[in-house]
């Protein structure tokens, strides 16, 4: 009896994956109902959305008032958010008390800042050195000349008339740009082998981290003028900028110090083996790696600083939040939801800027995450 064998000469076409593991059904099973606990959380979350979304939609969109001459339309029964109030006060929210006929100067500062900061943050665009010089050195001088005036034929506008989103961005941007280099120097000084330098840096960091920002702003508003020469008045906005910058520098110093300590000792020894002096070793080898490791902590401090700019309203500076609070007392727009709508607008503005910084941080982390993936 002969035995015969079968040898396949053609590959069998691959079978499709089970329908329950691909497409929408597969995604739902994997992400929402993979385990009993996941299924329970999904059901609870769905019930919460069913309970919360319809009222929010009715308040923000469905019953909201988008066009109105005054608050009468916002005072009717079941009226939602009074967005017409936000649109009517938009100029005040952005410029504060800045003269209307001079607001073109603020607009130029906004446009010029956007033109300079976008290529600076976009890694693919060349000529970063020129861009950095223009943004960090030339741009502040232009902003000061345009906003303050009193030269080149521009009308003088005191900082007491600045306000709204303009002041919020000024304080946030100046605080971020100026506090980072100071924080790096403090972190290096805290790890210095010179006892006096180390002690001074430790004292500075611990002192500023031991007090709340509100106290710092009060001290900057009250105490700083006492150190000025007799007859010299220190601008209120400048005092706030100095207080915010020094306060934030202390926190950034600890974030940078954490990155420096996270580097293995071999990196320091490698710099020594190349014969590099201290400035070159730090600038070319140590700091680039340390700052890369501390991007999340640094950006977290930046976001915290930007939100804390609202505290300057305590010392009488009309930032975005203070303009919203002041507008809430306008009787022409008086309604039950006037203040709530204003605070929602302020929260949305802060969220946009903070979320943008967060996403850019993630982008830079992924771009610089080389050689450390497991």
Characterise this structure.
- By secondary structure, the chain is mainly alpha-helical.
- Among the domains are: 99-156; 162-321, MetI-like fold, CATH 1.10.3720.
- The chain contains 15 helices and no strands.
- Helix 10 (236-262) runs antiparallel to helix 13 (295-308).
- It is globular.
- 25% of the residues are buried.
**Largest pleated sheet:** none
Q: From the alpha carbons, calculate the radius of gyration and give it in angstroms.
A: 28 Å
Principal-axes shape call: globular
For the record, the CATH architecture of the domain at 162-321 stands as Orthogonal Bundle
Task: Please give the alpha-carbon distance between the first and last residues.
Answer: 60 Å
User: How much β-strand is present in the residues?
Assistant: under 5%
Helix content bin: 55-70%
Give the name of the CATH superfamily of the domain at 162-321.
MetI-like
Q: Which series of helices and strands comes N to C?
A: HHHHHHHHHHHHHHH
CATH fold naming of the domain at 162-321: MetI-like fold
Give me the count of strands.
0
Return the CATH class of the domain at 162-321: Mainly Alpha
Question: What class do helices, strands and sheet pairing give?
Answer: mainly alpha
**Mean pLDDT level:** 87
- DSSP summary: helix tally: 15
């Amino acid at each position: 009896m002969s035995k015969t064998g079968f040898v396949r000469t053609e590959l069998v076409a691959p079978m499709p994956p089970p329908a329950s593991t691909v497409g929408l059904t597969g995604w739902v099973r994997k992400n929402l109902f993979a385990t009993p606990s996941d299924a329970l959380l999904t059901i609870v979350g769905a019930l919460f959305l069913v309970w919360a979304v319809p009222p929010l939609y009715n308040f923000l969109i469905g019953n909201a008032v988008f066009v109105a001459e005054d608050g009468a339309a916002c005072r009717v029964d079941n009226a939602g958010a009074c967005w017409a109030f936000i649109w009517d006060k938009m100029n005040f929210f952005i410029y504060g008390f800045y003269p209307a006929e001079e607001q073109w100067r603020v607009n130029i500062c906004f446009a010029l800042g956007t033109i300079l900061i976008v290529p600076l943050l976009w890694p693919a665009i060349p000529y970063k050195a020129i861009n950095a010089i223009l943004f960090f050195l030339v741009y502040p001088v232009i902003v000061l000349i345009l906003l303050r005036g009193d030269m080149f034929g521009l009308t003088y506008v005191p900082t007491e008339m600045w306000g709204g989103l303009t002041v919020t961005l000024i304080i946030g941007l100046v605080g971020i740009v100026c506090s980072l280099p100071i924080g790096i120097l403090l972190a290096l000084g805290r790890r210095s082998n010179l006892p006096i330098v180390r002690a001074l840096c430790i004292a500075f960091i611990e002192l500023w981290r031991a007090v709340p920002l509100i106290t710092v702003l009060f001290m900057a508003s009250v105490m700083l003028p006492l150190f000025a020469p007799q007859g010299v008045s220190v601008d209120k906005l400048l005092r706030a900028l100095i207080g915010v910058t020094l306060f934030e520098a202390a926190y950034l110093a600890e974030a940078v110090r954490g990155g420096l300590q996270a580097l293995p000792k071999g990196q320091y020894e490698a710099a020594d083996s190349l014969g590099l002096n201290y400035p070159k070793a730090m600038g070319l080898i140590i700091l680039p790696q340390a700052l890369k490791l501390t991007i999340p902590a640094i950006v977290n401090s930046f976001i915290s600083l930007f939100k804390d700019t609202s505290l300057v309203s305590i010392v009488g500076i009309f930032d975005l939040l203070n303009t919203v609070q002041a507008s809430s007392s306008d009787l022409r727009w008086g309604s039950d939801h006037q203040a709530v709508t204003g605070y929602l607008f302020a929260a949305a503005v802060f969220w946009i800027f903070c979320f943008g910084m967060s996403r850019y941080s993630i982008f830079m982390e992924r771009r610089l995450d080389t050689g450390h993936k497991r």
